[in-house]
Amino acid sequence: MAPILSALATGIGLLTDKYMLGATNFVEHYALDFHATHAQKDFVKAAMYAGAMLGMIVMGPASDFFGRRLGLILCSFITLLGALLSALAWSENALIAARVITGIGMGGEYPLASSHSAESSDKTSDGARNVALLYLFGSGFGQALCPFVTYLMDVAGVPHKLLWRWIFGVGVILSALGLALRYFAIQDSQKFVESKQAEQKHHASTWKILAPYWRALLGTAGCWFLFDIVEYGLKQNDAAIFSKNASATYTDSILQVLWSRLLVIPSLIFAPWLLTKISSKRVQLVGFLGCALANLILAVAYEELQDLSGLFFAFYIAQLSFQSLPGVTTMAISAEIYPSMVRGTGAGISAACGKLGATVGSYFFSELKNLGEIRAIFWTVFATSGLAMLLTVLTTPYYNGDGLDEADALACDSKPGQAVKVLYAGPKNCDGTEPTKSARYVSEDLADDAEENVMA
């Protein structure tokens, strides 16, 4: 029972995050008592991302010092405060401020929850799978929960001036539940505790350990940036996209958003299994490729598909399903490849770059939506996905659990340069019959070190 509660406590923050992010997809339609301008509506969507970037940059590195448990508890408390202020907001500007506060708490969730999930795995090779299950719980059910709650209240006839507040009110309940679960059910993993002991023994600084990982950091941060342009740019505006195509009423467009979230869940269930069969790098490439092709079709045939609402919806679901693969891997790779003692920092920087992409995508796509340029949105997604594929090929390592263990051990022994070579040497051969490329790198480095010592 304890492992289940711990997993639930870890994942409920991401579920709340996805729920609260989805809220702004609908709130702008119902909060008419504010008489908001287009610019204010766009800032409401972008405000949470600004707070999230701050939360990621601060909470990720901070958790490397005071632990994942305390960091996760603090994230839940800040999110609870922001959600409460959002529900009670008295003006559009007050709502923007409340969303920034919510974003700070939510931002910390990404590096902390993913790092804790990967570090808590019984086997290192299960890290990506466990992060994928975390993503399934958060992105799958969290993103479906918001349109579900909104649809139920809408058809129940809840007055619009109260409906949008109750959307945030459900976020308050989720945040409070997460805070209680984390206080009683989460502990720092043994791997994290051991890494802190090694760090104190060698007096290693965060930046000295992380500096040789510059190529990996370029990959995880860059790919997450590009992915979030796509994901949040679309998901913050797809209610309006659907209402322009197939729906006669806004309520129908909410139902289409709900179905789009539910129909993506099978791909999120498929992702953890796929990550046990092929590498995270290849899963990411498949996801970006599928997303690019589906959006190319949506862009080229947009006018024709407008009259074929079922076919338009099918292609939109296809691109969302492919999106779920890099959605999992951008988080999983960032939570796996950095040494445990600086994992919060590496994952936090990567996640912050992702939310910068979310801010760009949300604002830019909203402007395109306001201009009626829906086709341009799909062209942008196609180009962004293609660029992400190229960056994945050039910067993302191809690794397995044994290689990660060896790299982590070298980093803990104050040899981050050798750790990076192991990471990029490819999956390790565990049967002992042939020397691995990574083993040859380490042997060569040790020989070089010995030669340097003799010469000295």
Automatic annotation (TrEMBL):
InterPro entries (UniProt xref): MFS, MFS_dom, MFS_trans_sf, Sugar_transporter_CS
Protein's name in the database: GIT1 protein
GO molecular function, one term: carboxylic acid transmembrane transporter activity
Places the protein is found: Membrane
Membrane topology qualifier: Multi-pass membrane protein
Major facilitator superfamily (MFS) profile domain sequence ranges: 1-400
Taxonomy, superkingdom: Eukaryota
Residue intervals passing through the bilayer: 46-63, 70-90, 133-152, 164-185, 206-227, 258-276, 283-302, 308-333, 376-394
GO cellular component: plasma membrane
Signal peptide: none
Stored SUPFAM superfamilies: MFS general substrate transporter
